[in-house]
Design brief:
Helix content is 23%, strand content 26%. The chain is of the alpha+beta class. It has two domains: 37 residues; 160 residues, Phosphatidylethanolamine-binding Protein (Alpha-Beta Complex), CATH 3.90.280. It starts with a helix and ends with a strand.
Length: 203
């Protein structure tokens, strides 16, 4: 009988010691990681920014028809796993209604790039990456904001949109934004937009 009590006592001590060890090990691991554990929500999301201006802020004139008319620097981060290419589109939906009716468009296309390598993190000022599509002026290049002074609204919004795709687009240089969007259907893993504004100085 005495041996039974001794056995129970030893078993109890072992259980207590095991619990103490597990508790202290958990505390040490938490300290090593700062109490932060990874989770799916920690994953980065696709982001598009510019060092030249903030989201929803004014675009500096050097990137417009009033000055150098060169493309602004852009930064891309958080490209999702599995992306095979990126596409970048810039347009102005605030063009005068008369232009929309005359040309049968809903926006003016300022910049179209596709088949951008997914590891791209920067598009330098005045630079280009990937394949160039055609803009609204019929050229395979960037053309800056140039809202007509005689129409309202005098300040236009310019949408820069980046798309992460699960494929390369089988399209030639000079493809229009509309055709790029059509080819992307069903292949967009993630997308993000960045907006700049511009109003021309009155003469």
């Amino acid at each position: 009988m005495r041996s039974t009590y001794v056995l129970i006592g030893i078993t109890t001590l072992i259980v207590i010691a095991g619990a103490w060890y597990a508790f202290n090990r958990s505390s040490m691991e938490s300290a090593d990681t700062g109490g932060i554990t990874s989770s799916p929500s920690d994953a980065m999301t696709l982001t598009l920014t510019s060092s030249a201006f903030q989201h929803n802020a004014s675009i500096p004139s050097q990137f417009t028809c009033d000055a150098e008319n060169i493309s602004p620097p852009l930064s891309i981060s958080g490209v999702p796993e599995g992306a095979m290419s990126l596409a970048l589109l810039m347009d102005d939906p605030d063009i005068p209604q008369v232009f929309k009716q005359e040309r049968g468009i809903d926006s003016f296309d300022h910049w179209t790039l596709f088949n951008i390598p997914p590891e791209t993190t920067e598009i330098p000022q005045g630079g280009s990456v990937g394949t160039r599509g055609v803009n609204g002026a019929g050229k395979n290049e960037y053309t800056g904001p140039c809202p007509p002074r005689e129409y309202e609204p005098s300040e236009h919004r310019y949408f820069f949109r980046v798309y992460a795709l699960d494929m390369m687009l089988d399209l030639p240089p000079g493809t229009s934004k509309v055709d790029v969007l059509r080819a992307m259907e069903g292949h967009v893993l993630e997308q993000e937009e960045f907006v700049g504004k511009y109003k021309r100085v009155a003469l």
